[in-house]
């Protein structure tokens, strides 16, 4: 099994490729199970394509960092009232 280094470019597939989800999003997109299932699907896809556990942890850290920045930006922005 090979591992992808984080400093190497990640091959991107065309937009015509879609990820198959094991559930219907039309029912209730706010269903807490949907998020859990989506996370598991993404994790499995990453691991199946060669990302190591460390790579997935690094990705998770980056996502949390982006979310934190976004939340801080919303709190710091004037609400216009």
Q: Which structural traits does this protein have?
A:
81 residues; mainly alpha; flat
Describe this structure in words.
- This protein is mainly alpha-helical and 81 residues long.
- It is built from 2 helices and no strands.
- The relative contact order is 0.12.
What's this entry about, in short?
The protein has 81 residues and is an all-alpha fold. It has helices at 32-48, 53-76. Helices cover 51% and strands 0% of the residues.
Largest sheet: none
Order of helices and strands: HH
Please state the average pLDDT score.
77
State the distance separating the first and last CA atoms. Answer: 56 Å
Q: Please state the overall shape, judged from the principal axes of the Cα atoms.
A: flat
Strand content: under 5%
Rg over C-alpha atoms, rounded to the nearest angstrom: 17 Å
Portion of residues in helices?
Answer: 40-55%
